[in-house]
Design brief:
Strand content: under 5%
Number of strands: 0
Structural class: mainly alpha
Number of helices: 3
Distance between the termini: 38 Å
């Protein structure tokens, strides 16, 4: 992902990449909670690791956008960008909450 050149993509494509990777992460976080609930602890842990990888890609895209704007190239603001940002931030919050919940469940042997 380091070689990703955002200038080669339209603003819509970049926004959809953010939505794609954060959406994949969100699905894995929710599935991790469901797997844990069914007693599949190892699978739950694995899904959280996969979610982290998806979020890492989303962060890289987001960081490149910030760098681009900091260097003087304006990032086009649109409702789609706002949606992508919201998607990313809510997924990050959800991931942290689920991780804490699963740690608590493990600690309490639930």
């Amino acid at each position: 992902m380091d070689n990703l050149n955002l200038e080669e993509l339209s603003a819509e494509q970049v926004n959809f990449m953010l939505i794609l990777h954060s959406g994949n992460a969100r699905s894995k976080v929710i599935q991790a909670l469901r797997e844990y609930k069914e007693g599949r602890v190892t699978e739950a842990d694995h899904l959280l690791i996969e979610a982290e990888e998806d979020l890492k890609v989303a962060h890289q895209i987001h960081f490149k956008m910030v760098q681009q704007e900091a260097s003087g190239t304006k990032v086009e603001f649109a409702l789609l960008l706002m949606h992508a940002e919201d998607h990313l931030m809510s997924t990050l919050s959800m991931k942290e909450l689920v991780k804490e919940m699963l740690d608590l469940f493990k600690q309490k042997k639930l």
